[in-house]
Prior knowledge:
alpha/beta; seven-stranded parallel sheet
Amino acid sequence: xxxxxxxxxxxxxxLVTERLLARGERPCVFVRDAKKARALFGRxxxxxxxxxxxAAAMASAFAGIDSLFLLNSGPGLGARDRTAAFAAKAAGVRxxxxxxxxxxxxxxxxxxxxxxxxxxxxxxxxxxxxxQSAAFMSNALGWxxxxxxxxxxxxxxxxxxxxxxxxxxxxxxxxxxxxxxxxEGKSLVITGPTALSYGxxxxxxxxxxxxxxxxxxxxDAQARKMALAWSDSKEYAEALVDIWRAxxxxxxxxxSDGVERIVGRKPISFETWADENADAFA
Length: 282
């Protein structure tokens, strides 16, 4: 089997690549920055350079690939998924694993973008598996500045809860789907083990760093200003506000047993993630 990983220098893609290397595979990585990929993986991978919006680059990169991990983000991801899926079909890719989102089911935030991507993959005819994941625990690193400087986490999520998932769990599920094909044609819903409020997660981080972290609820308008200050697009900022509102309203509380069913172990807790990343908040 030959594997190609998109987003291989990012959070999830790098973990998937590392897991394939640990299995003794020599995966291909499709990246914009070959030097960054080489620094991460040395000579253990084959590097193919290009962009997920470039059909010609993908036609070349996907040649000879059996199983493809597709990772796209941002408002234009649906169109990029379409380009990638049809390029994969034309290249003879036998299985495409797309990292999607649980929000496809609720039509919240980035959910509609990923729904467009899933539709495009289905239309292409390439065999697929969709990984419909909850939000990543690593997103909490975005709270580090305010926690470090003021000991506070501000959000418009109120008392609403969500079951964030550890990136390692996502990577393990993706790797399983890529290497076995036993979940072909399925949408796999994966979450963390417990739905927690942002206030509860703030307290967990406080326990990990040995000092109190308080939660402060803010209105949507203030949350929007904060999102626009660091987001790379207005559309993405609005998607975040929509997600935070849905959490507050209790619409994103899903907890699934997907990780345990697929990889045979319990998903990693937020407490463990906070301990692993305590230095970022201290």
